[in-house]
Amino acid sequence: MEYTPPPFFKTGPSPLTRLLFFSVLSLAILITDARFKQLEVVRQMVSVVLYPLQRIAFAPLSLARRVGEFFVSHGELRTENERLLRDNLAIATLAQKARALEAENAHMRRLLAAREQRAEPLMLAEVLYAARDPFSQRIVIDKGLQHDVRNGQPVIDAQGVVGQVTRTYPLLAEITLISDKGHLVPVQNVRNGLRSVLAGTGVLGTLEMQFVPHTADVQKGDQLVTSGIDGIYTAGLPVAEVVSIETNAASTFSKVICRPLGGAGSHRQVFVVHGSEALPPRPPEEAEKTPKGRKGRKGG
Amino acid sequence: MINFYPGTPEEILKPATTGFIVFTLAAALLLNLLPWEGWGLWVRPDFVVLVLLYWCIDQPRKIGFGIAWMLGLVMDVSDGSLLGQHALAYTLVAYAGIVLHRRVQRFSITPQALHVVPLLLLNDVIVLLVRLATGSDFPGYWYFFGSVVGGLLWPALSYLLKLPQRPHVDADHA
Questions:
Q1: Can you give the residue ranges of every domain in chain B?
Q2: Any idea which fold A118-277 has?
Q3: Closest in B68, B77, B88 to A30, CB measured
Q4: Domain spans of chain A?
Q5: Helix or strand or coil: residue A14?
Q6: pTM value surpassing 0.80
Q7: pLDDT for A148-172, tens place per residue?
């Protein structure tokens, strides 16, 4: 059973020694990556080497998509065109109203001396693939550090929030979907302004509103938008719709299940929102930190 | 008909070239990198570990822990998972392959596949343990299905990887 080379052939250390060496190395890397996050450089280097292979692997699907798009029937194109014209008309009227409202809003904000809300620049990115990982919900897009994509930037589609950039490579970026387990979005109910936190459940297309008391005014069909208090998601982006509310007398909070509005998992193109608003620093924490720092300096 | 004894005459094969081993490992990596989605993700075996195991059993002197470990690291980066989990799993599978290679080589293809499936499952279990330790949920028993598919693919794989080593049969002398 045991594989030991005859002593007259020099084969280096025994398999068991090598196994121990590489296992300890792997465990060391695991712990370093999990605890100290110091290995991003290694990750980026490997990803650059891997990029051509990834592109080759993606080529057949991309070709199939293009061929599929080429052979769209005339009828489909006509119905789509009609729908777009109809939508365009509706949007044009809204846009006219919006322009008037925007001017009025800007004027009133000036009166209130409040910060003017600016439109964030959006960048179109193509979804390359869903990460091959049954444990978490992530997608990979074809824009990376080279295109100024940074960690923490929100990603949206035409319907609503899709997720957040969680890892950037030179030419690619990884987006964690809002339905990923442990992903949180601070939201606000459009109907009554109630603030809450929406957590991913790990199941595609299901979100859960956390810590909602039984007495809270939440109804089926309520629209939830980002509240913007986290400084990551800008305020007012549509996120989800309340699907069901379960009240259980045994627990303090109701179980509120929501459905994301962004077509998470089914999109090809998404927008990366550049440069979310910089929030003013939190005053109490700052106040605590500065005296400590001064003390430290004095002591040293 | 399952043949548990090496009754079939062993073929005389040419030694596998290093270039061919590198080529097959790269091809396996490419297969792993294909954009698998939906149920394909569950059925998909880990091609890299399958080919790696094949070479560990067939050519234990030409392939070693270093290569297994590097491939694991590459898979970790491509999956965007915690660095080192695939590296650890591949290293252990390579060890099992190298230690067991004399035993497994004696069997014919079908019992060989029966040896391979537990080793592929070992790979899954290690990755699963690391994921559970870092706070993921158990993804369901379908997670292990890919390894069974890997076992089913073993005969085809071993036929394909032996092709270049078969000596050419000269038609004039046949």
A1: 46-162
A2: Thrombin, subunit H (2.40.10)
A3: B88
A4: 118-277
A5: coil
A6: no
A7: 888 888 888 878 888 999 888 888 8
